[in-house]
Amino acid sequence: MKLPYAEPYRIKMVEPIRQSTKEERENWISEAHYNLFNLESDKVFIDLLTDSGTGAMSDRQWGALMTGDESYAGSRSFQELYQSVNKITGYRYLLPTHQGRAAENVLFSVLVKDGDIVPGNSHFDTTKGHIEFRKAHAIDCTIDEAFDTELIHPFKGNIDLVKLEKVYQTYPKEKIPFCLITITCNTSGGQPVSLENIKAVRDLSNKYGIPVYFDSARFAENAYFIKQREDGQQNRTIKEICKEIFSYGDGMTMSSKKDGLVNIGGFIALNNEEIFRKASNFTIIYEGFITYGGLSGRDMAALAVGLDEATEFGYLESRISQVEYLGNQLIEMGIPVQRPIGGHAVFVDALKFLPNVKREEFPAQTLAVEIYKEAGIRGVEIGAILADRDPETRENRYPKTEFVRLAIPRRTYTNNHMDYIAAALKNVFDRRNEISSGYKISWESEIMRHFTVKLDKA
Ligand SMILES: *Cc1c(COP(=O)(O)O)cnc(C)c1O
User: For residue 277, what is the domain's CATH number?
Assistant: First the structure.
């Protein structure tokens, strides 16, 4: 008999989680104004709100925490982190920050100005926030295939070179501080970008004299997909692939809460000395001295180890096959999901799941609330609420897709939890025709409204 797959780790510590009744959950979600971000965590049984900072650290990481060096300047833990980042990315300069958006804030303070254009593949929400906050514009150049959820394409995160070149031809070089490649592309469903595409973006950008940066939160997952799916990559290690990816960029911002395998942290790594100097000043103003950037020494020590573990094949295989395990169950049940299944999450296609709910009543949010009420599972809306209003016209923006993202924390839940999640979705799917009305906004903030929005039944 062929031996089945089993995870390359065992569990040393457990954390109890609490079940609740449907009635309790109906009250709680109404008190939370139908915004899942407003729920206290003990009111959630399985938390798939995000894979950001929610994973489990290894014994090696917990060991590293105890040997962290808390010196304000020149910490040994910074050196460990520098070595780890340099080994994986090849970049010369490192600035730690307290998380990924802080890295964006520091780097964009140097590079992005009023009226600038930043092309890329479906910019992440905080990234877009930091661009628009500076009165600059993010232009989405993702390939069209990414928006057809049923179409199978190995690299749905890819940048459309024709769209990108059009941006380069339309705007003067001085207005385009860089092209931003997000690996994997979170917003389009945790979809990878191919090495070939990254290289082509680099070549095209060189032709127009535009730098290339990576938003690299899930770079290791992206490298895993390259190894699995791209011709000629099968025999390379994840670390070799990562090194090549980063060689095509001028630098990166990182949310260490994803493929850093830690609960907090971020960083900027880059090659240009002048940008590093300028960014250092912003780091000191916003984050802290340049050898800690808002992190404690032990955070950096655990991150140094986490980056090494995240770029090992065995870890990535267990992580990504668990997400696939859940996704495949949903596909077998006939539930519409973004395909192929992404690296960190299953994206449920709410427009197909709930065709009776009007776009103005937020189908993905409606579905996320139903899944919570059904089973205490917390996912997140990636739809019109997240897409926010146009900064100039203040009109609601309706993206091409409406997803409920079920993000799987790293090394945290078992496949029994995946089975439970699949069963819950099946129950909601079976009664989908009874769900015909959604929600309306009763209060929203000016920017990034999804975190704090209040909703009423429509
Ligand atoms: C999470 C994330 C960020 C922001 O990082 P935080 O650590 O949450 O501040 C930026 N870009 C991408 C692609 C992300 O997934």
Answer: 3.40.640.10
